[in-house]
Design a protein that fits this description.
Keywords: ATP-binding, Nucleotide-binding, Transport. This is ATPase AAA-type core domain-containing protein. With 162 residues, the chain is of the alpha+beta class. Helices cover 42% and strands 14% of the residues. The protein has a two-stranded parallel sheet. The chain has a two-stranded antiparallel ribbon with strand order 3-4. The longest helix has 16 residues. The protein is elongated, with a radius of gyration of 18 Å.
Length: 162
């Protein structure tokens, strides 16, 4: 899911979804689709065009498109940017569900607090190289800012470095 969604200006929300289904030969299970649309707060926006949607709504539509594609590997770049608290929670639950079902879920993000809530493993990168791999099960039960403390110790961003 890209950080800035590219949507067709002349297609409504539901037309984007139906186009993706046709292009990817996705079998339609409308009850699941309507559930996802409702959970992400777009049920009343099905006929809206992209220019009528807020940035957060565009991201929600892009998320629905990614989920609807039927992929087994999901790559997300800053997936929580622009989402309201309700959509943030829904996305967190959806990502956890995807991972629990055996799908690959890779997130690229800076929000360590949100990442700590959902990740199984975190890779710290500097200059595109992995400098630390963290098994989040080993940090469970630690303070809410444990991941931030680990990350700052790795990259040298603690207050003692200023």
């Amino acid at each position: 899911m890209p950080e800035s969604p590219d949507l067709y200006p002349g297609l409504s929300v539901i037309e984007h979804i139906r186009l993706l289904e046709r292009l990817n030969m996705v079998e339609r299970a409308d009850e699941h689709l309507h559930d996802v649309i409702a959970r992400f707060g777009l049920a009343d926006k099905l006929d809206a065009l992209p220019h009528e949607l807020s940035q957060g709504m565009k991201r929600k539509l892009t998320l629905i498109l990614a989920l609807r594609k039927g992929a087994r590997l999901f790559l997300f770049d800053e997936p929580f940017n622009g989402l309201d608290p309700v959509a943030t929670r829904e996305l967190r639950l959806e990502l956890r569900r995807l991972a629990d079902e055996g799908n690959g879920v890779l997130l690229s993000m800076h929000g360590l607090g949100e990442l700590q809530k959902i990740a199984d493993r975190v890779l710290c990168l500097i200059g595109g190289r992995v400098v630390r791999s963290i098994n989040m099960r080993e940090t469970s039960g630690e303070a809410d800012d444990a991941l931030e403390d680990i990350y700052l110790s790795v990259v040298g961003g603690g207050s003692e470095d200023r």
